[in-house]
Amino acid sequence: xxxxxxxxxxxxxxxxxxxxxxxxxxxxxIGRLVFPRAAAGSLIERDGRVVGSRLIGQPxxxxxxxxxxxSATGPIAYNAAASAGSNLGPTNPARIxxxxxxxxxxxxxxxxxxxxxxxxxxxASGSGLDPDISPAAAAFQVPRVARSRxxxxxxxxxxxxxxxxxxxxGLLGEPRVNVLALNLALDERDAAKPAAGH
Amino acid sequence: xxxxGVLQIALYLVVLTACxxxxxxxxxxxxxxxxxxxxxxxxxxxxxxxxxxxxxxAREMTWMEYALAFLLFNAAGTIALYALLRVQGFLPLNxxxxxxxxxxxxxxTATSFATNTNWQSYGGETTISALGAMLxxxxxxxxxxxxGIAVLLALVRGxxxxxxxxxxxxxxxxxxGSLYVLLPLxxxxxxxxxxxxxxxxxxxxxxxxxxxxxxxAQGQPVVSQRLALGPVASQIAIKQLGTNGGGYYxxxxxxxxENPTPLSNFLELLAIxxxxxxxxxxxxxxxxxxxxxxxxxxxxxxxLGLFLALAAWSEAQxxxxxxxxxxxxxxxxxxxxxxxxxxxxxxxxxxxxxxxxATTAASNGSVNSMHDSFNPLGGLAAMTLMAPGEVAxxxxxxxxxxxxxxxxxxxxxxxxMVGRTPEYLGKKIESYETKMAALGILVSPIxxxxxxxxxxxTAAGAAGVANPxxxxxxxILYAFxxxxxxxGSAFAGLSANAPFYDTALGLCMLFGRYxxxxxxxxxxxxxxxxxxxxxxxGTLPTHTPLFVTLLVGVVLIVGALNFVPAxxxxxxxxxxxxxxxxx
Lengths: 198, 583
Prior knowledge:
The complex is a heterodimer of chains A (198) and B (583).
Chain A: H1 2-34, H2 36-39, E1 43-46, E2 49-53, H3 93-109, E3 117-118, E4 132-133, H4 135-149, H5 153-163, E5 164-165, E6 176-178, H6 179-192
Chain B: H1 3-31, H2 37-53, H3 63-87, H4 103-114, H5 130-160, H6 170-196, E1 206-215, E2 221-227, H7 232-241, H8 262-286, H9 290-315, E3 327-328, H10 348-361, H11 376-386, H12 398-418, E4 423-424, E5 427-428, H13 431-456, H14 459-462, H15 470-484, H16 499-528, H17 545-560, H18 564-581
Helix pairs in contact in B: 1-8, 1-10, 2-6, 3-4, 3-5, 3-16, 4-16, 5-6, 5-7, 5-16, 6-7, 6-8, 7-8, 8-9, 8-10, 9-10, 9-11, 9-17, 10-11, 11-18, 12-13, 12-17, 13-15, 13-16, 15-16, 15-18
């Protein structure tokens, strides 16, 4: 027993150095050398200034912007320092109520839009930080965003199309629209060409 | 489920089979210490580890010595991790100045990682410092998985050796599993994940501006967002490959920094089952009969497939409670459809349901969607996969040795049917082995059901529940199933970071690990001592479809039937409620 105990006490720090120090540092080194942008959080820069991460959604409720998925993080939505899902069960009345409230908010923001609302736009994401919405959820919001910005719907649709990514390798996952990238592109478009005929 | 979803699931199973078939033999040879390019590259490191630790890898151990070394090493690891988590506030590499953990949370987390459970009572980015993640959690991710492989190796030696008194050397098995299997695969996967956007940095948090400033509950403006960064990819790679599952972030692999793209999702998903599946083929190599490995693989694949199909179908269903709200829940091009509460758009239904099945089939326990928000039958699929002790691939090493316990019970039952002494691969299975196998199989259900019973009948247990009605019961049942089977996933609405749950679940994890490992090693010792019995006409062949069917039947009847009354009170009642809500 004494011998195995001694080996146990020595083996732990030795393996800790290999797997807990050398291994993560090697990965950090390779990441910094080969994929520096990805390793640092896929940050989006404009004019040398960081304006967000491509991977982390931001909260939007201005009708001029596309809205992302509902977020269950606390104390505020899209709190990237404390990811969380709602964990509401399928029969929980609070979940049905939450969906009802989101439906009402979306309807109130665009009373003319009669289409059914895509499910991802009224359900909280798993992380509370989902950067994407489905193409259907983007299409649903196009009339509202176009009207609020005084743009032709077709132009907004083109910007949406540019921010849409198909399934990885044509097969994996779901098609998706990055909300922050989309809203940044809209703002840049407006800044470049001051909208006429407001 | 649309055609693309079915295709994604089929692709996953095909790639898993191909990769694990390919890796089975090289893994077996590396663990045997045979020479290869890998041992030439890492051999000096292996020998240095033995020298520094004072271990003699050639010294053969009896099963009791082996068990003692296993337990001592686990005890040392648990205590060291407990201490590290308690004092992390005073240590370096803590850029966000996180304090030490409370005693009950540190106990729970240390137990959780040392037993390869990785139940996340801790909150990830808000709780564990970068040093704690690297030197604490990542280390246990490696060694707890390698220890699982070691126990499997010991059992295999018991089967293969004839009239032998020893079952190998624990230190050699532990070090080879860590260095030759887990480390190279983790390094590859970690770099692949970084390429997809999984962060890997020693810097702390970063504040970025919000494009549209928000307001908090008090109406105060919020103009920036704090991004939690850290050495994530290195931890995620091993947490997937080592069937650990403890994430860097609170929401685990649902977090975009932990799992940013459908491709990273596919790789992480593959990593969950890769080594447990490959070990089936390693087994075939060790017993010198490849078809024995295929038979075990087939039984596991059938079990996974059954419940993966149930989960995928269930999650594609609309919620009857939302009828009449004008919500589009039908899957179409550009609309994931189905139950998207707690799921990420980039993964959709197929990517989330496949993960839920794989992570509970293995003892992984990582999640990429919130199981608590699954439809009742989706949650039931996850619970049923955990219930027999996670033997559909299961944990690294532990899944296969768990399945071999069921094999022993199956040949025993078959032997009773035809009135002959049961045998497996030339070894007689007698009352000692059968009793030990029964003990190993029954410990987890007892721990899970007793734990659930205690929790629902005490105020401290009921206090943690988040959802009303039968779903609240499901949250408790899921927690104890997860802990007793060393899974680690959760119906995460349950407030588990409280003295009652941290302690009760910690104890279940200890039972679920060590009360299986010790009987398995006892069986290994007993089998090793036996003589080889050549197969006769009366021997039940264990590679046939008939045997695979019997084995699947025994797993479901012995393993899962224990839980039917409990399932009836939770997910089954909730499903009936859900269906009736639509009328």
